[in-house]
Request: fold
Amino acid sequence: MMGVVLWSDLDDQKAVFWCEDHGDLAYYDASAEGETCSDLLNAGDMVRFDMKLDRKMRRATNAQLVEQKVCHGLQDHLRASSARGMRDGHVARGHGDHKVVQLHPRAANEVSQQRMGRG
Reply:
């Protein structure tokens, strides 16, 4: 599978990957897999990895750097999108301070009106 590093901790050799299939994120822990991460994985880097399901959680193994900084600034873009969603009222509050952006399909007539410039 291919993916982009969203977050990494170089000291602990852990990372979170956004997967090419746009499914759940994959969690990578080189030390737990008995691997050593020969290439430093930084946010925005493209990686190739094997994936396994571990108790409903995607775990990445055998991560290899494909290209650095392919999606440089992706985290900032996602934060900005989240902020726009919150501003537009597309956020449901969860437990504590956690926020989840809700993706609701638009009604067909709303989409039609926006296409015709009435929305």
Q: What stands out?
A: The helical segments are 74-87, 108-115. The chain has a mean pLDDT of 75. The two ends are 39 Å apart (CA to CA). The chain is about 20% helix and 35% strand.
